[in-house]
Design a protein that fits this description.
Blueprint (H helix, E strand, L loop, with lengths): L2 H17 L28 E8 L2 H8 L8 E11 L4 E3 L11 H7 L5 H9 L3 H25 L4 E3 L3 E10 L12 E4 L5 E3 L11
Antiparallel strand pairs: 1-2, 2-5, 3-4, 3-6, 6-7
Length: 206
């Protein structure tokens, strides 16, 4: 067997070895959205509750989530709600006018999957790379799960003069409905609904 044939026969093995351990998850923290309204020092007549949101692009997905979640059919939206009042409000994703997809469902769809590579490793008897790749994928997926959960906008109480922010995920087919996006908050004291007016919304990108 000449050198050319040896090289060609070893090429798939070398390629697979190069892939071993390449599973990773590395994403940047979310940046703060520019608020529509003023600061906590605003006077009484400036009291209001406002919302700002940014629709993630493919580049944003790669930067902040390290995965192209749009390709899997999900659209991340970064939302910030600024409570510039002396009242506390209850926020829940159930009270968003567009159905939100749980972060766990999205994360599951973009998990690193190395099954195909592990099969090829086994074909060539490369059990050590298979083990390394398996552990690398498991670690990457754990980091991804934790980060998606941390960045998702959680149900919570918005304290007076505080801002909450985070991501929601919607089906990408519902992006056109963002023009009518509303969020209903509940006053913590009497549970009365408070709908954030449309003119308080500031779409940063589409």
């Amino acid at each position: 067997m000449n050198l050319k044939h040896i090289f060609l026969s070893l090429l798939p093995v070398v390629a697979l070895l190069g892939l071993a351990g390449c599973a990773h998850y590395k994403a940047k923290p979310l940046t703060k959205l520019q608020q529509v309204n003023g600061s906590a020092k605003a006077s009484a007549q400036d009291e209001s509750v406002t919302m700002t949101y940014e629709v993630f692009t493919k580049e944003d997905c790669k930067k902040y989530l390290d995965r192209d979640v749009q390709k899997k059919g999900y659209q991340p939206i970064h939302i910030a709600i600024n409570n510039n009042t002396n009242s506390s409000f209850i926020f829940s994703t159930k009270n968003i006018s567009i159905h939100c997809v749980d972060n766990e469902e999205v994360a599951e769809q973009v998990h690193t999957n190395t099954v195909a590579r592990v099969v090829w490793y086994s074909v060539f008897g490369l059990f050590l790379p298979a083990i390394i790749d398996g552990f690398g994928s498991e670690k990457a997926n754990r980091l991804l799960d934790a980060d998606f959960s941390h960045k998702e906008l959680q149900d919570q109480v918005i304290m007076p003069y505080h801002t909450i922010d985070g991501l929601i995920f919607i089906d990408i087919d519902n992006v056109d409905s963002l023009d009518n996006l509303t969020i209903t908050l509940l006053n913590k004291e009497d549970r009365s609904p408070f709908i954030i007016p449309m003119d308080s919304q500031d779409v940063k990108s589409c």
